[in-house]
Amino acid sequence: MKRAYTNKAKLSRLIAQCSRKKVSYMTPNTASKVTEMHRAENWELMQALRRALKAKGMTYRQLGNELGISEATVKRMFREQDCSLSRLTQICNLLNISVYDLMSVAQQQEESTTPLTPQQEQYLATHPGHFAFLLCLLQRQSPDQIQSRHQLTDRCVFYYLRDLDRQNFLELAEHNRFRLKVGPQVRWSLQGPLQQKLKEVNQIFIRHVMDHNLDPGYAFESSFRFMSQSTLDAFCEDLRQLSRKYRRHSAQEDALLPNEALRGVKWTLAIAPFAPSGVLDIPELEI
Question: Is pLDDT at 269 greater than 50 in this prediction?
Fold first, then answer.
């Protein structure tokens, strides 16, 4: 685990939030809303537990053997979202995680993003090497890894870190140790000074995906269709919801799983009224 939690007071409060069932003076409508809320909480908790099992490579059958129950009972427990605190603690012990970790992950939303100041964006736009170096740090590459991959000298690596420290992207300590002041997720302004650089990065990304579209873990879809404005609006909202869903899942896994069980993944979702024919030239034929 990345973190260990031992604060029993916090755990007690969190358990109370996840398990409280009685509310005084509830109207039928309020009671229904509370039931839905608890059902959603239980679903998130069991989803987090499912992801933890998968990350540890433990099947329902193996879990049942460890708990002394049948595989069918384990499946029913997940299907009905019915797991007592004692059983939950037993499973967490098997997975070498704390109950508080699991409950925190279940309640965790997607990671917050850090906006850059206009001065920081302008600096990165005029210092492309520093922009690339910062991206590597945000993607959890160490200075040593960056140095090895790009064949940089010790002095060059120090200067990059020093400059990023002066621009308030990070806080530099001895021996190139640092603490990022931005991220881990950065909110890039699509209309700011970095617009051209962000276009270049996404163009490189799209080419990469198209070149490896048949490889596992790659997907590329591109279509042109005629549709109404209402269908287009619904399509846009579906894409936003899909992205939110997996941002949340990734934030939960990032909090729960060790680094070696995670992979860096980028996705770009785009949809717009656009006619490909409008950007293609049709030359005059020589007759």
Answer: yes
CA 283, chain centre distance (Å): 46
Residue ranges and CATH numbers for the domains of the chain are 8-107 (1.10.260.40)
What is the DSSP pairing of strand 113-115 with strand 185-187? parallel
* CA separation for the pair 56, 60 (Å, rounded): 12
Name the pTM for this structure.
0.67
- Beta strand residue intervals within 69-214, DSSP E: 113-115, 170-172, 178-180, 185-187
Chain length of the chain: 287
Question: Is the four-CA dihedral 268, 269, 273, 277 of positive or negative sign?
Answer: positive
The tens digit of pLDDT for each residue in 82-122 reads 888 888 899 999 988 888 878 877 766 556 678 999 999 99
- Identify whether the C-beta of residue 1 lies closer than 8 Å to the C-beta of residue 101: yes
**Coil, strand, or helix at residue 187?**
strand
